[in-house]
Design a protein that fits this description.
There is one protein chain. By secondary structure, the protein is α/β, with parallel strands linked by helices. It has 2 domains: 234 residues, 3-Layer(aba) Sandwich (Aspartate Aminotransferase, domain 2); 123 residues, Alpha-Beta Complex (Aspartate Aminotransferase, domain 1), CATH 3.90.1150. The strands form 4 sheets. It has a 7-stranded mixed beta sheet with strand order 1-9-8-5-4-2-3, sandwiched between helices. It has a 3-stranded antiparallel beta sheet with strand order 7-6-12, with no helix packed on it. The structure holds pyridoxal-5'-phosphate. The site of pyridoxal-5'-phosphate has 15 residues, from helix 3 and helix 4. The site of pyridoxal-5'-phosphate (PLP) has 15 residues, from helix 3 and helix 4.
Length: 383
């Protein structure tokens, strides 16, 4: 070792997943070619069944992306023009874009500064007589505080739709995400905890009526071939993706445990390091899709880490209400101070199931060294 060749630590390593499972993935792909059931088919049906069991729900409907899952969940719940849906301004913008697809209006509630999830204390103030749903996001893999959300939902007769795109297998008070609210929306984008070899998504629910509508809308709303009874979409999950996802689902618990173990190592090693570690609420299983810290000198820290071969990312640099495509006369800078502050401070460190403890130690060591060098102070937790 030594010399000028330093090893790069990537943000994540998807090729390692393939190397671990190559024979099984190759066989799964071959199976789909042999059957030539490329769209939906037996692999998709089997995956839906297995993923429903994994989440502890009655119904799972495979779709072609997390975005489609959100869109169909909202439509399945009857959301449309004139309705309002409560969500957060600090998320991947698909959460908000899909509300717009239905003709409904997103209404934002700020996030909690410790967990980055919806601040449940502020939800009721955002409810109007047009509110139809609450759409919490389990950001970075930590469940939102669902009990108060379900309670508010029940009292105001609102549908609760979970955005589970970053939280496969997460748990809240012993319940799996995706089966806590009325509908759950998963993404299998390659970088998610369970990732396809392309696009993929899925909707979970225990409500047979929602399941029937969503299943129909996913494939043109056909009652039978070439006879649509609903104006539907081409949102089907391809057989090859389902076959690959079935193989990876078999490893998800192991991979999640690995993520949690590495996150615990970060937690220990980053004490007094000049960055704020992620806060975890009691009695949840955080699945660490991302290990995201906060730094008052985020941009410089990111640049310095890059200089020593440590790849990081910012999820997300701009809150939705300040993005050019989603600006809205109802909202201006300053309206969601916590989301806006987090957008300036968050930094996701490398974390993936095949990462080694030595790599975590190396990252933590450099964070200590560089945040001291750049003169950063620990942000005080605003909890
Ligand atoms: C990835 C993601 C989505 C969208 O999923 P796609 O599969 O990319 O369409 C939605 N919400 C959140 C929070 C996400 O992270």
């Amino acid at each position: 070792m030594g010399g000028w060749v330093s090893t790069v630590i990537p943000l994540l390593d998807l090729a390692a997943q393939y190397r671990e499972l190559k024979p099984e993935i190759d066989a799964a792909i071959a199976r789909v070619f042999e059957s030539s059931q490329f769209i939906l088919g037996t692999e998709t049906e089997a995956f839906e069944e297995e993923f429903a069991a994994y989440c502890g729900v009655d119904y799972a409907i495979g779709v072609n992306s997390g975005t489609s899952a959100l869109h169909l969940a909202l439509l399945g719940a009857g959301i449309g023009p004139g309705d309002e849906v409560i969500t957060v301004p600090f998320t991947f913008f698909a959460t908000v874009a899909t509300i717009g697809y239905t003709g409904a209006t997103p209404v934002y509630v700020d996030i909690d500064p410790g967990t980055f999830n919806i601040d449940v204390k502020q939800i009721e103030a955002a409810i109007t007589n047009r509110t139809r749903a609450i759409l919490p996001v389990h950001l970075y893999g930590q469940p939102a505080d669902m009990d108060p959300i379900l309670d508010i939902g029940r009292r105001h007769k609102l549908v609760v739709i979970e955005d589970v795109a970053q939280a496969h297998g997460a748990e809240y008070h012993g319940r799996r995400t995706g089966g806590i609210g009325d509908i759950g929306c998963f993404s299998f984008y390659p970088t998610k905890n369970l990732g396809a070899a392309g696009e993929g998504g899925l909707v979970t629910t225990n409500n047979p009526e929602y399941a029937r509508t969503i299943r129909s809308l996913r494939s043109w709303g056909e009652e039978h071939r070439y006879y649509p009874v609903l104006k539907g979409y081409n949102y089907r999950l391809p057989g090859i993706q389902a076959a690959i996802l079935r193989v990876k689902l078999g490893r998800l618990e192991q991979w999640t445990d690995a993520r949690r173990k590495l996150a615990a190592e970060y937690d220990r090693l980053l004490e007094d390091s000049g960055v704020l570690r992620p806060a975890v609420i009691p009695d949840v299983r955080h699945v660490y899709c991302l290990y995201t810290v906060q730094s008052s000198g985020r941009d410089q820290l990111q640049q310095e880490l890059d200089g020593v071969g440590i790849k990081t990312a910012v999820h997300y640099p701009v809150p939705i209400h300040l993005m050019p495509a989603y600006t809205d006369e109802r909202y201006k800078a300053g309206d969601f101070p916590v989301a806006e502050a987090c957008a300036h401070a968050v930094l996701s460190l490398p974390l993936y199931p095949h990462m080694s403890s030595e790599q975590v130690e190396q990252v933590a060591h450099e964070v200590h060294r560089l945040s001291r060098k750049t003169g950063q102070e620990t942000l005080l937790s605003r909890r």
